[in-house]
From TrEMBL:
CDD domains: HP_PGM_like (cd07067)
Species the sequence originates in: Streptomyces niphimycinicus
Protein name per Swiss-Prot or TrEMBL: Histidine phosphatase family protein
Highest taxon in the source lineage: Bacteria
SMART domains referenced in this protein's UniProt entry, alphabetically: PGAM
Length: 217
């Protein structure tokens, strides 16, 4: 699944939303609708100025507030309208949602360990990572297919959803997706299109190294 048609030189920028209070608390947000902090808004504003220099052709975003507000900053700079799609939401994680990292390990230790080993796990009774990719990757590819040659699409989403989408577009085995690592708030990854499909050009770019807080949200 690579969405290419002979290598049209397109780019996909997958941009994680800005900071939320639950990121700071390392609290799993999942599909819950948590807003940006003031710091998160400032992060989005700064990153938007950088991303605008890429002259994006289109912007799509998760409809959750933290992603929509982040995308709005890029819209304000570029004048591009944002298309919101629920398919780009973060992983639904059932009983894990709202819990801190420590609480998840305490209450769901075996499930957490299995997930970290790369086993298919319905965290908290929620979605499998492959199911997240099943809904998110087609949204990204459909929008990318509408780009002009050499065009750039910005996708504003969430850490877990971005990782699974990258894994799917690169054709990686699901058990290896965790090896991609996390994205810091308001950092991004870039996929470029070549003759053999999509390839990872940048990962967790946009700033000096920062701690990754609450990546799966």
């Amino acid at each position: 699944m690579n969405g290419t048609h002979g290598g049209r030189g397109r780019r996909i920028v997958l941009w994680r939303h800005g900071q939320t209070a639950w990121n700071i608390e390392r609290r799993f947000q999942g599909s819950l609708d948590i807003e940006l902090t003031d710091t998160g808004v400032a992060q989005a504003r700064r990153a938007a100025r950088l991303l605008a220099a890429l002259k994006p052709d289109a912007v799509i975003a998760s409809d959750l507030k933290r992603a929509a507000a982040t995308a709005a900053e890029l819209s304000a700079v570029t004048g591009l309208s944002v298309t919101h799609d629920a398919g780009l939401r973060e992983t639904y994680a059932g009983a894990w949602q709202g819990l801190t990292h420590e609480e998840i390990i305490e209450s769901f230790g075996e499930q957490y360990a299995a997930w970290k080993r790369g086993e298919p796990v319905r965290r908290g009774g929620g979605e499998l990572e492959t199911e997240v990719a099943d809904r998110a990757a087609p949204v990204v590819l459909e929008s990318a297919d509408k780009l002009p040659d050499e065009g750039t699409l910005v996708v504003v989403s969430h850490g877990g959803t971005i990782r699974t989408t990258i894994g799917r577009l690169l054709g990686l085995e699901p058990r290896t997706w965790e090896a991609l690592g996390g994205l810091s708030n308001c950092c991004w990854s870039v996929l470029g299109e070549g003759a053999r499909g999509w390839r990872l050009l940048e990962h967790n770019a946009g700033s000096l190294p920062e701690p990754v807080l609450g990546d799966d949200d």
